[in-house]
Amino acid sequence: MARTTTRRDSSRAVIEHQLVMLARWLEAAQRKQSYPMDRASYLLLLRLERDGPQRVAGLASSLGLDGSTVTRQLAALDTRGWVQRSTDPLDARVTVVEATSAGLTAVDDVRRLRQDRIDELFGDWSAAEQAELGRVLGHLNEVLERNALGS
User: Fold this and answer.
1) Residue 9 lies in a domain
2) In what order do the strands lie in the sheet with 54-55?
3) Would you say the pTM of this structure is higher than 0.70?
4) pLDDT tens digits, the chain, 151 residues: what are they?
5) Which residues of 80-98 are buried (b: 16+ CB within 10 A; e: fewer)?
6) Does 91 map to a domain?
7) How many domains does the chain contain in total?
8) CA atoms of 20 and 9, how far apart (whole Å)
Protein backbone atom coordinates (compact mmCIF):
# COMPACT_ATOMS: atom_id res chain seq x y z
CA MET A 1 0.00 0.00 0.00
CA ALA A 2 1.47 3.34 -1.03
CA ARG A 3 1.73 6.02 1.58
CA THR A 4 0.62 9.50 0.67
CA THR A 5 3.18 12.13 1.63
CA THR A 6 1.67 15.25 3.09
CA ARG A 7 3.28 18.66 3.32
CA ARG A 8 3.63 18.08 7.08
CA ASP A 9 5.45 14.78 6.52
CA SER A 10 7.75 16.49 4.04
CA SER A 11 8.47 19.36 6.45
CA ARG A 12 9.17 16.92 9.28
CA ALA A 13 11.59 15.00 7.06
CA VAL A 14 13.42 18.20 6.10
CA ILE A 15 13.60 19.36 9.74
CA GLU A 16 14.82 15.95 10.92
CA HIS A 17 17.51 15.85 8.27
CA GLN A 18 18.59 19.46 8.85
CA LEU A 19 18.84 18.93 12.63
CA VAL A 20 21.00 15.84 12.15
CA MET A 21 23.26 17.73 9.76
CA LEU A 22 23.38 20.77 12.06
CA ALA A 23 24.54 18.57 14.94
CA ARG A 24 27.17 16.97 12.70
CA TRP A 25 28.58 20.26 11.42
CA LEU A 26 28.56 21.85 14.87
CA GLU A 27 30.55 18.88 16.20
CA ALA A 28 33.04 19.24 13.34
CA ALA A 29 33.33 23.00 13.89
CA GLN A 30 33.86 22.48 17.63
CA ARG A 31 36.78 20.11 16.98
CA LYS A 32 38.29 22.52 14.45
CA GLN A 33 37.83 25.76 16.39
CA SER A 34 39.89 26.50 19.47
CA TYR A 35 38.60 29.00 22.01
CA PRO A 36 40.41 29.98 25.22
CA MET A 37 37.42 28.72 27.23
CA ASP A 38 35.42 25.51 26.98
CA ARG A 39 31.72 25.65 26.15
CA ALA A 40 30.57 24.59 29.65
CA SER A 41 32.53 27.42 31.26
CA TYR A 42 31.27 29.88 28.68
CA LEU A 43 27.63 28.90 29.31
CA LEU A 44 27.99 29.18 33.09
CA LEU A 45 29.65 32.58 32.85
CA LEU A 46 27.06 33.80 30.35
CA ARG A 47 24.28 32.82 32.74
CA LEU A 48 26.04 34.51 35.67
CA GLU A 49 26.62 37.62 33.55
CA ARG A 50 22.96 37.74 32.55
CA ASP A 51 21.32 36.81 35.87
CA GLY A 52 23.91 37.91 38.42
CA PRO A 53 24.90 36.02 41.58
CA GLN A 54 22.88 32.89 42.23
CA ARG A 55 22.69 29.65 44.13
CA VAL A 56 24.51 26.72 42.58
CA ALA A 57 21.29 24.69 42.48
CA GLY A 58 19.48 27.46 40.62
CA LEU A 59 22.30 27.81 38.14
CA ALA A 60 22.29 24.06 37.50
CA SER A 61 18.53 23.98 37.09
CA SER A 62 18.51 26.92 34.67
CA LEU A 63 20.86 25.00 32.36
CA GLY A 64 19.22 21.60 32.79
CA LEU A 65 22.30 20.20 34.53
CA ASP A 66 22.91 18.19 37.67
CA GLY A 67 24.14 20.17 40.68
CA SER A 68 27.24 17.99 41.07
CA THR A 69 28.19 18.62 37.44
CA VAL A 70 27.90 22.37 37.89
CA THR A 71 29.84 22.22 41.16
CA ARG A 72 32.75 20.51 39.34
CA GLN A 73 32.60 23.03 36.49
CA LEU A 74 32.53 25.93 38.97
CA ALA A 75 35.61 24.54 40.73
CA ALA A 76 37.53 24.88 37.45
CA LEU A 77 36.23 28.44 37.00
CA ASP A 78 37.17 29.26 40.59
CA THR A 79 40.71 28.01 40.00
CA ARG A 80 41.04 30.42 37.08
CA GLY A 81 39.68 33.29 39.16
CA TRP A 82 36.57 33.62 37.00
CA VAL A 83 33.99 33.08 39.76
CA GLN A 84 33.81 33.61 43.47
CA ARG A 85 31.68 31.78 45.96
CA SER A 86 30.07 33.08 49.10
CA THR A 87 27.61 31.92 51.69
CA ASP A 88 24.00 32.86 51.13
CA PRO A 89 23.17 35.48 53.78
CA LEU A 90 19.68 33.99 54.11
CA ASP A 91 20.85 30.39 54.51
CA ALA A 92 24.42 29.62 55.59
CA ARG A 93 24.11 26.08 54.17
CA VAL A 94 23.79 27.44 50.63
CA THR A 95 26.56 28.65 48.33
CA VAL A 96 26.07 31.61 46.04
CA VAL A 97 28.32 32.02 43.03
CA GLU A 98 29.04 35.09 40.94
CA ALA A 99 31.31 35.98 38.05
CA THR A 100 34.40 38.02 38.88
CA SER A 101 35.56 40.94 36.76
CA ALA A 102 38.22 38.59 35.33
CA GLY A 103 35.48 36.09 34.46
CA LEU A 104 33.41 38.77 32.76
CA THR A 105 36.46 39.95 30.80
CA ALA A 106 37.19 36.35 29.75
CA VAL A 107 33.61 35.83 28.59
CA ASP A 108 33.75 39.11 26.62
CA ASP A 109 36.95 37.93 24.92
CA VAL A 110 35.37 34.62 23.91
CA ARG A 111 32.16 36.35 22.80
CA ARG A 112 34.22 38.62 20.54
CA LEU A 113 36.02 35.60 19.00
CA ARG A 114 32.73 33.77 18.49
CA GLN A 115 31.09 36.81 16.92
CA ASP A 116 34.10 37.28 14.63
CA ARG A 117 33.58 33.67 13.53
CA ILE A 118 29.90 34.41 12.89
CA ASP A 119 30.97 37.35 10.72
CA GLU A 120 33.21 35.00 8.71
CA LEU A 121 30.45 32.45 8.24
CA PHE A 122 27.51 34.75 7.60
CA GLY A 123 29.11 37.96 6.38
CA ASP A 124 27.72 37.49 2.89
CA TRP A 125 24.16 37.09 4.21
CA SER A 126 21.92 40.15 4.17
CA ALA A 127 21.04 41.84 7.45
CA ALA A 128 17.50 40.51 7.04
CA GLU A 129 18.75 36.92 6.56
CA GLN A 130 20.97 37.20 9.63
CA ALA A 131 18.10 38.61 11.68
CA GLU A 132 15.80 35.80 10.50
CA LEU A 133 18.40 33.18 11.42
CA GLY A 134 18.71 34.73 14.87
CA ARG A 135 14.93 34.72 15.27
CA VAL A 136 14.53 31.09 14.17
CA LEU A 137 17.46 29.92 16.32
CA GLY A 138 15.97 31.76 19.30
CA HIS A 139 12.65 30.02 18.77
CA LEU A 140 14.39 26.66 18.33
CA ASN A 141 16.30 27.17 21.58
CA GLU A 142 13.09 28.05 23.43
CA VAL A 143 11.48 24.82 22.24
CA LEU A 144 14.56 22.74 23.10
CA GLU A 145 14.85 24.37 26.55
CA ARG A 146 11.18 23.68 27.35
CA ASN A 147 11.65 20.08 26.25
CA ALA A 148 14.88 19.62 28.24
CA LEU A 149 13.55 21.25 31.39
CA GLY A 150 10.17 19.54 31.11
CA SER A 151 8.12 22.73 31.13
Assistant:
1) no
2) 54-55, 91-99, 83-88
3) yes
4) 556 667 777 899 999 999 999 999 999 988 887 888 999 999 999 999 999 999 999 999 999 999 999 999 999 999 999 999 999 999 999 999 999 999 999 999 999 999 999 999 999 999 999 999 999 999 999 999 999 988 6
5) eebbeeeeeeeeeeeebbb
6) yes
7) 1
8) 17
